Amino acid sequence: MKIATYNVNGVNGRLPVLLRWLGEAQPDIVCLQELKAPDDRFPEGAIRDLGYDTIWHGQKSWNGVAILSRVGEIHETRRGLPGEPEDTHSRYIEAAVNGILIGGLYLPNGNPRPGPKFDYKLRWFERLIAHAAELLATGLPVMLAGDFNVMPTDLDVYKPERWLDDALFAPEVRAAYFRLLDQGWTDALRTMHPGETIYTFWDYFRNAYARNAGLRIDHLLLSPPLAERLEAAGVDSNVRGWEKTSDHAPVWIELADSSTRKRRKAKTEAS
After folding, report:
1. Per the database record, which ranges form the Endonuclease/exonuclease/phosphatase domain (predicted)?
2. What domains can you pick out in the chain, each with its CATH number?
3. Positions marked catalytic
4. pTM of the prediction?
């Protein structure tokens, strides 16, 4: 099963790019971020024509998240993180799809730092950490996927010395990300590409994509039952080079039907 996350940076304005990528890559499940569209403007029909069921949590001009599936019904379990009832930003949607509980998220950018936006980012991260702990405690196969707006390490950012004052690279934000991982989550892309320079975002300015001056800010985190099924992970970086494309590229993983550890053990015992 192939699962992807993609910050589309405007689902209607980038719809031809999204549909082209869906048709070529054919992911089974997709989490989208930055829809930048109210609920009544989500292009459900065009996506359904490619064989995908959808749920979405939109917002006019900003934010917005969605989950797409071509491998079974989407059973929504939550929209919005608990912990701050007055928060109206459309940044989190959660659903059970084909035996997996998926939380699709768009974590706040947080700039400028310091300031109210950065404080909101830290609060949102704390709410995510608290909810993620509850998800892990269920023992179910769970995934958190989306634009986390954090570069965890120096390896995840081109020229890190230029980002020291940015909210995406702030020590508090990076520490929060690793507290999240320390609960027991697996960073799928980094696990499959340890030590490799691999990015998911390239700014529109300063010819960043052509220079490969990027950031790794889009992540897929797996609970232990899913981590055992991880077979591959990658970035469709070529999509960033398409005309009128998002500044992000799709990030994907492939999961085996059963634990790779169990299958390796069975293979060893058979031989």
Report:
1. 4-248
2. 2-270 (3.60.10.10)
3. 106, 147
4. 0.95
